[in-house]
Amino acid sequence: MTKKADCYIIDITIGYYNFQRSKFECREVAALIIEIDFNSDEAIYMQLRNRIIMGIATAELREGDSLPSVRNLADHIGINMHTVNKAYTVLKQEGFIQLDRRKGAVIAVDIDKLQALEDMKQNLRIILAKGRCKDITKEEVHALVEEIFEEYDRI
Q1: DSSP per-residue codes, 50-95
Q2: pLDDT tens, 9-19?
Q3: CA distance 86 to 9
Q4: Whole-prediction pTM value?
Q5: Which residues contact residue 74 at a Cβ distance below 8 angstroms, ignoring those fewer than 6 apart?
Q6: Residues 75-92: tens digit of each pLDDT
Q7: Most CB contacts within 10 A, which of 5, 6, 66, 115?
Q8: How far apart are CA 32 and CA 11, in angstroms?
Q9: Is 154 helix (H, G, I), strand (E, B) or coil?
C-alpha cells in the first residue's frame, strides 16, 4: 500500500474459485489496484464498488475470481469492516458478485442483459439531462462513449 496525497492505492491479490469443482484453486494470480480518496465527496463504499466494477469491465477481474475477505480488505485499507461489507452487498444486489460464507465474495456477473439495459437507460436519462443543461451536444456524448468503449477494447 502506498500513500499518494490523501489517496491510498491498494494492490489486492485475487484468487480463483472453481465453481465446477467447488474449491479454491490457484491459477495465474491477478492484482487489482484500488485507489481510495479519503477526501472525496464520494462515499468509500461507492469508491470500492466502482473500482471493482471497473476491474470487471477491463478484465482485471474475471468470472470466478475471489475478492479479499471483508476483514482482510478493511484491515488492508484501514477502514471499518461495515464499509467493505456495504460495498460487497451493493455489488451482490447489482449482480456483480456472489457472497458465500465458505467461498467469500466471488465475481459472478449476472447475465440478465435486458434488465441491465433498462437500468442503464434510467441512469443515462439523468446523466444526459445534466449534460443537456450544460450544453453538451449529442456528438460530444457519442465521442465520449466511443472513447470509453475503446478503453475496454484495448484489453
Answers
A1: HHHHHHHHTTSS-TTEEPPPHHHHHHHHTS-HHHHHHHHHHHHHTT
A2: 555 555 554 54
A3: 20
A4: 0.69
A5: 80, 81, 83, 84
A6: 888 899 999 999 999 999
A7: 66
A8: 6
A9: coil
